[in-house]
Design a protein that fits this description.
Elements (H helix, E strand, L loop, with lengths): L16 H6 L14 E7 L5 E7 L1 H4 L4 E5 L31 E2 L5 E7 L2 H7 L4 E6 L6 H4 L15 E9 L2 H7 L2 E9 L11 E6 L5 E5 L4 H12 L6 E4 L16 H11 L3 E4 L2 H7 L6 E9 L5 E13 L5 H11 L9 E9 L13 H19 L3 H8 L19 H12 L2 E4 L2 E4 L10 E13 L10 E9 L3 E7 L9 H13 L6 E4 L17 H21 L5 E7 L20 E13 L5 E11 L6 H20 L5 E2 L2 E2 L18 E7 L16 H4 L1 H13 L10 H10 L6
Parallel strand pairs: 1-12, 10-11, 14-15, 20-21, 24-27
Antiparallel strand pairs: 1-5, 2-4, 2-6, 3-5, 7-15, 8-13, 9-10, 9-12, 13-14, 16-17, 18-23, 19-20, 19-22, 23-24, 25-26
């Protein structure tokens, strides 16, 4: 075995690279079937209203229209990733109580299926809908008040979820505190802006199953929700993902899956749909806007002794993943610090706004923005270096978190921060602690320059007692020698390179050249349940499953079983939900750790921010494919720059005012940092495959607070609301008497 090839730790080219670069790789919108029809969706015209009647006769009479579907056609008119609180189609006649009410503009009301896309689009406005307007509430604070319009039965004051932490003795903590800082932090919506808008194709496959070709993040959960809505056994539904044009959490919830399956089933013909960018921005969920009020106290020697926080997250009209997102924010709003006394209340609140849901970081970026803002304010108030202050308080092995339990073994926050600070070139460690050099000179007379730091942590895998597992099958084929290895693993490759890593891990596990490894995935008919490509979990979970299956198959091969086929289910240590009163929990079985240093220039004349340089340090446990990790860091930093300084989705009275990429601005090549320096550390996670931790979300989480800290360093002003658009920055500067003169 000494001469076995080593595939772990090698920067191999992505398996999908050539196909995507040449355009040969098909995405859902690229696939056609003979005899296919086209679908268009009529979205809600109102923010909150009861649909009294729908008249489809004019649309049905339009040339080329085959069928118009309404709520009456949906067998079980409900869906939802966690709570089935959203109708598939809103309107009367389905028998589902409350399904005749539209609660936001994202609601789908009717489907037009026609021989051509043009005919379907032309018939769509011919559907006549009689609405009875209902009182709407689009302000999250107003939604929590007595007397506010109630969106869903059983949720008084529209409070979908409420968590609390009561750790230590908060009043004793305040008596001990010698310095106290407070802040109210606000974060906005963010649009996923993935390359391919929602698209798909429903058809009946060769075994009579209702099949849907689509882009998503969890084929088996998609199948479960489609089957539920159609009232059919899951075995009659098949979900297939071809290439996926990005996700970032935006494809966790249903978009076109159920309606495509419904139409294909009823019509027994293939049905295709491609959303426009406007439809995509209106039709899928966004990152949660939040309001976070925080108060922290420390002793003069820099020990944080008390922290209070209240988080209010706007769920929008439906639950989606709000209970889990807000649960994550709840855990992370006190930062990765050992704080003996803490009091936190976190709320997810229904409104008539567009739904909020999963987005890279999953509640972590919002909470981290507040927590690191508080830590930077404490450092300023204490006159202490922000790196030094963090190292005095950071969680380590056996530290007790604010939920009353330690983190899993091998906590490396101190190592990550120290290495990131050192490699930034801005900080040095001396006998009296860490000290920072002055920021480099700005590039122009109206510009000021500053340096900021932030650290964070993020779960790997599902949290708070959610069932967690991953199946993989490894087949070894050949006679005397291994000729072929087939890996069956359903984990979605949403652009992060998971399928490349799966092949590397299988080749390593079996001990064969990677050219012999074939991957079968993205198809419920061919694979076991892998769970979602979310929560930075797929390398960790699929890796353990592939490693286990490879070991079992290899043993069968050695026992001369031909072919040698083994299936393995990896189940990690169990997690536990929050205690209702105290918040005590074992929330996660693994974490990733990160530190970022941002070098920022601000033009005080225009308010424009330029992120000059970002140093992004991460403990990845083991870099399975280092180049893919660098790509994750660079991509996350760019996406986080958009979140921090420019992406400003405007929702007014429940309606999106800028549902186009011409008005909702994301970073271009001219907006990205001049330099992104990844610092990759490898302290093995004892539970990870070959020691690997997950890390896809980690570089996103800390960037916004690092930029805000750098902006304070440059101007002396705290900015507690993102995005830091030029208008917001310049107005704040003027309010503090700072201008270009």
């Amino acid at each position: 075995m000494e001469d076995r090839p080593v595939w772990i730790g090698r920067s191999l080219h992505r398996v999908d690279a050539v196909g995507k670069v040449t355009g040969k790789t098909p995405f859902p919108g690229d696939i056609d079937l003979e005899g296919q029809l086209w679908m268009k969706i009529r979205f809600s015209d109102r923010v909150h209203a009861r649909i009294k009647s729908i008249d489809t006769s004019r649309a049905e009479a339009y040339p080329g229209v085959v069928r118009v579907f309404t709520a009456r056609d949906v067998p079980v008119n409900e869906y939802g990733l966690g709570i089935p609180d959203q109708p598939v189609l809103c309107g009367p006649g389905s028998g589902k109580e409350g399904a005749d009410i539209v609660r936001c503009i994202s609601d789908q009301v009717a489907l037009v299926v026609a021989e051509t896309e043009e005919a379907a689009a032309a018939a769509l406005p011919l559907i006549d809908i009689d609405y009875e307007d209902l009182p709407a509430v689009t302000d999250v604070l107003a939604a929590m008040q007595d007397g506010a319009p109630q969106l869903h039965a059983g949720y008084p004051n529209n409070i979908l979820c409420h968590y609390q932490i009561r750790h230590g003795d908060i009043e004793a903590g305040w008596r001990q505190a010698e310095v106290v800082v407070e802040g109210e932090y606000r974060t906005g919506y963010q649009e996923h802006a993935y390359l391919q808008p929602e698209a798909g194709l429903g058809f009946i496959d060769e075994e009579g199953r209702i099949a849907v070709i689509v882009a998503g993040q969890w084929v088996h959960k998609d199948r479960e929700q489609v089957a539920h809505a159609l009232g059919l056994p899951e075995e009659q539904i098949r979900i297939i993902y071809p290439a996926i044009g990005g996700a970032f959490g935006g494809r966790e919830d249903m978009s076109v899956q159920i309606v495509l399956a419904l139409a294909a089933w009823k019509l027994q013909r293939p049905v295709k749909i491609i959303w426009s960018r406007e439809e995509s921005i209106i039709g899928h969920h966004k990152r949660h806007p939040t309001i976070i009020r925080a108060k922290w106290g420390a002793t003069r020697d820099g020990r944080v002794v008390a922290a209070e926080a209240t988080i209010i997250g706007d769920s929008g009209a439906y639950a989606y993943t709000t209970p889990k997102v807000m649960g994550n924010a709840h855990l992370m709003v006190c930062g990765p610090y050992e704080i003996p006394n803490a009091k936190v209340d976190t709320y997810g609140v229904y409104t008539n706004n567009i739904p909020s849901g999963a987005f890279r970081g999953f509640g972590g970026p919002q909470a981290c923005f507040a927590a690191e803002g508080q830590m930077n304010k404490l450092a300023d108030a204490l006159g202490m270096d922000p790196v030094e202050l963090r190292l005095r308080n950071v969680l380590r092995d056996d530290s007790i978190t604010v939920v009353g339990t330690p983190l899993p073994p091998n906590v490396t926050l101190d190592k990550v921060l120290a290495e990131g600070a050192a490699q930034s070139g801005y900080w040095t460690q001396g006998a009296d602690g860490w000290r920072r050099a002055p920021a480099p000179p700005p590039s122009g007379p109206t510009r000021r320059r500053g340096i900021g730091v932030a650290i964070g942590f993020k779960n790997v895998g599902f949290s708070f007692g959610a069932p967690e597992q991953n199946w993989a099958t490894v087949e070894i084929h050949g006679n005397a020698e291994i000729e072929r290895v087939v890996v069956r693993q359903a984990g979605a490759d949403v652009g992060q390179g998971a399928h490349t890593v799966f092949r590397q891990m299988a080749a390593e596990g079996v001990g064969v050249p990677i050219e012999l490894v074939e991957l079968v995935g993205h198809d419920t008919a061919e694979t076991g349940n892998s769970g979602s490509s979310s929560a930075s979990r797929m390398t960790f979970m699929a890796g353990n499953a592939i490693k286990g299956a490879a070991e079992l198959a290899l043993q069968k091969w050695r026992d001369e079983e031909r072919p040698a086929i083994a299936t393995y289910q990896y189940v990690p240590p169990k997690t536990t939900p929050y205690d209702r009163e105290t918040g005590r929990s074992n929330p996660n079985f693994a974490y990733g750790y990160m530190a970022q240093i941002a070098d920022v220039e601000v033009d005080v004349e225009t308010g424009h921010i330029t992120v000059m340089r970002v140093v992004s340090a991460h403990d990845v446990g083991k870099a399975i494919n280092p180049q893919l990790i660098i790509g994750q860091v660079e991509g996350a930093v760019v996406q986080a720059v958009g979140y921090a300084v420019m992406e400003n989705l405007i929702s007014q009275d429940g309606r999106i005012l800028n549902p186009y990429l011409s008005t909702y601005l994301i970073p271009t090549v001219l907006d990205i940092p001049h330099e992104v320096k990844p610092v990759i550390l490898e302290y093995a996670d004892p539970r990870g495959p070959w020691g690997a931790r997950g890390m896809a979300e980690m570089p996103f989480i800390t960037l916004a607070p690092a930029v805000a800290a750098a902006l304070h360093d440059a101007t002396g002003i705290w900015f507690d609301q993102i995005p830091l658009t030029p208008e917001r920055v310049v107005m704040t500067l003027r309010q503090h008497g700072i201008d270009a003169l």
